[in-house]
Amino acid sequence: MSRVPPNLDLNETGPPIPGLIGSGEAMQSVYRLTRQVARSNASVLLLGETGTGKELIAKAIHRLSPRGSGPFIRVNCGALAENLLESELFGHVRGAFTGAIDNRTGRFEAAHTGTVFLDEINSTTPKLQVKLLRVLQEHEFERVGDTQTIRVDTRVIAASNRDLLEEIEAGRFREDLYYRLNVITIYLPPLRERREDIPSLVAYFLRIYNEQNYRHVPYVNPAAMDALQAYQWPGNVRELQNYIERAVVLAPGDELTPDLLPEAVLGGKPRRIGRARGGDLETLSAELVEQGIDAAGPAAENLHATIVSRVERELIVQVMTGCDNVQIKAADRLGINRNTLHKKLKEYGLEK
User: Fold this and answer.
1) Which of 41, 61, 80, 337 has the fewest CB atoms within 10 Å, counting from its CB?
2) Within 13 Å, how many C-alpha atoms sit on residue 175's CB side?
3) Residue 156: beta bridge partners?
């Protein structure tokens, strides 16, 4: 088979924003809905797994809207504790709390005449959700520690990587806020549901990272492309992007070959540093026996909880290590918010 660069096949009308690639039916539907809702002032809820491009769609909606010349303000709701997030969103006055030495403008106020993008909206607490509901309904709020009401003209776009209906059933998300946000929903499909777009994405990232790294790797070996299209992509487009950058940097020639891809993409197991724990049932069973736990005996009453806790602890240790102990990055990779990760670290004695 002759070597040819992968085809960068964009749809005729082009994606709504540079960097959002894909001409398959799933993404065409996303593009059409994005353009339609952009012209309105309606609230938009973006749903999709981590790494599917929710922020790119939010920026596209803003850019294509009548508010396009106004500010676009992003807030990661999962990155801050409740009291800090409230101040971040609504601002505060001097003396409102310890450390509030000056008045501060919040993100809603900064987004006046523009758009505020609330990423990981599912991470907000019920108390904060009440204030968000008021902003959506009345377009007004008070800064933390103040009684003066501030009115704003701000469009809200929210995003979640969790099923909000499940969050409502679990009592973690207000139903009235959900319906207020859910005027229009755009679902971002995971990469495994739009594999036909992988060659275009590979071509796009090759071009970007060749330019950034002063490399010339324009070709993709057919076996490498087959592996890329067969992989499940738990990290979605963001994961693909990282692997293409890695391959471009490491390539000895002008072709992306299978050996430049991580073992997980090629169907193998990723390498682990140190002794594997609970890697298979035999190992886990032996370790339980060492601890005096017989899976068939009375001591096994809490066996499920024991195993889940051990596996979860080990997973958190590995992810934190891989993220250089940066909690925000680790929480994003684990698909949980930072507050939840902090509680888990404390629960398992991993705070240090």
Assistant:
1) 41
2) 4
3) 116
Give CATH for domain 195-260.
1.10.8.60
d(CA 50, CA 272): 24
Question: Which sign, positive or negative, has the C-alpha torsion 52, 53, 57, 62?
Answer: positive
Which CATH superfamily is 281-347 part of?
Homeodomain-like (1.10.10.60)
Q: For the whole model, what pTM was predicted?
A: 0.72
Sequence ranges of the domains in the chain: 26-189, 195-260, 281-347
352 residues of the chain, pLDDT tens digit each: 456 677 655 444 445 456 678 888 889 899 999 999 999 999 999 999 999 999 999 999 999 999 999 999 999 998 887 778 888 888 877 766 666 667 788 899 999 999 999 999 999 988 899 999 999 999 998 888 888 888 999 999 999 999 999 999 999 999 999 999 999 999 999 999 999 999 999 999 999 999 999 999 999 999 999 999 999 999 999 999 999 999 999 999 999 999 999 988 988 665 555 544 445 555 555 665 555 555 555 555 556 666 777 778 888 888 887 777 778 778 777 878 777 888 888 888 887 6
